[in-house]
Amino acid sequence: MTDRDVFLPVGAQPTLDDLVDQAVTAEELGYDRAWFPESWGRDVVTPIATAAERTDEIGLGTSIANVYSRSPALLGQTAATLQEASDGRFRLGVGPSGPIVVENWHGMEFGNPLRRTRETIEIVKEVLAGDPVSYDGEYFSLDGFRLRCDAPDPTPPVDAAGLGPKAVELAGRFADGWHAVNYTREGVAERLADLRRGAELGDRDPDDSRVTLSVSCCALEDGERARELVAQHIAFYLGGMGTFYRDNLARQGREELAHEIYDAWQRGDREHATELVQSELRDQMGAAGTPEEAREQLERFEDIDGVDAIYISFPRGADPEEIRETMVAMAP
Q1: 207: which DSSP letter?
Q2: Residue 30, class by beta-carbon neighbours within 10 Å (0-12 exposed, 13-18 middle, 19+ buried)?
Q3: What digits encode the pLDDT tens for the residues 44-54?
Q4: Environment class of residue 218 by beta-carbon count within 10 Å: exposed (0-12), middle (13-18) or buried (19+)?
Q5: Chain mean position to CA 22
Q6: Strand partners, 309
Q7: Angle between the N-to-C axes of helices 72-85 and 113-129, in degrees from 0 to 180, rounded to the nearest 10
Q8: Which residues are within 8 A (CB) of 282 and not within 5 positions of it... i.e. 6 or more apart?
Q9: Per-residue pLDDT band at 112 (split at 50, 70, 90)
Q10: What DSSP designation does 131 have?
């Protein structure tokens, strides 16, 4: 059975307390895991640590912590600490993000994101094992680092986010799971072959690699409002968040549409970009409408062979009450 997780918008909530309350609500509603992002605004560690204190059963995780703003050793320490704080409920999700975030916000050179992600995952896993870390890579060379506290038991899994074939292959080869973001239903099915190939290259069982698919959801009594919010959200990512999501959609057989949405957004015609998503793409990438309609659409994503968990994400334009209404409507 496919798990149903929830993706909590860290930066969009009025207060930290409001955000953590959403994690508490998610647990009460029966969600399997609450994922916390980190982009700008609040960091990801503090909300998870606070949520770990206020919840008892729901899984907690980062989706994603980027591999440029913290060193691999610090990410390992953080994962060990959050695993302890949550009594074994933590899962670390990492990824390279993109040049806009890494270079403009963190002042780091983007470089080779695949290599940096691989080295980060390898070092984090060595740190979490509790043994002295000896590592000589292209980006990182460590000698003698070791957790002063006991190694976490159980060891928290390490997932990787990835868009292109090589990034997904890397997740299968080195990580414990893959986070799929901004995919159509057909597109994610194609990338699963890359994940399996990566697992085989790493002499690992492909069935052990956990696939978590993000689906933008909005379920409101005002179904038209819900559909508009999801279409706007998808258009924003394809048109306004650099070229990675645009190119990822193009690889999924929607090249002309991807560029048309991107170009419309870039020239300031956001209404047209949203209309294109609404008519051509929304049902392939999201679940929106009345509660009954949105739940029915979500089940199509859950039926994808090879997907282990769906995490429900909320459109960026939704207010706290609309987020709550959707969370209740889409609960397991």
Answers
A1: G
A2: exposed
A3: 999 999 999 99
A4: buried
A5: 17
A6: 3, 212
A7: 50
A8: 227, 230, 231, 234, 288
A9: very high
A10: S
- Provide the greatest CA pair distance for the chain: 58
Averaged pLDDT score across all residues of the chain: 95
Q: What is the CA radius of gyration of the chain?
A: 19
Q: How far apart are the two ends of the chain, measured CA to CA in Å?
A: 11
Q: Which helix (H) or strand (E) holds 142?
A: strand 141-145
pLDDT the model gives residue 108: 87
Tokens of 331: 């609960």
Neighbour-count burial for 222-244, b at 16+ CB within 10 Å, e otherwise? ebebbbbbbbbbbbbbbbebeeb
Measured between alpha carbons, how far is 27 from 24 in angstroms, rounded to an integer? 5
Q: By the 8 A CB rule, do 144 and 132 touch?
A: yes
Question: How many angstroms separate the CA atoms of 274 and 85, rounded?
Answer: 42
CA distance 294 to 76: 38
- Amino acid, res. 265: W
Contacts of 260 (CB under 8 A, 6+ apart): 276
d(CA 6, CA 16): 17
Residue at 91: amino acid letter = R
Q: For residues 39 and 9, is the Cβ–Cβ distance under 8 A?
A: no
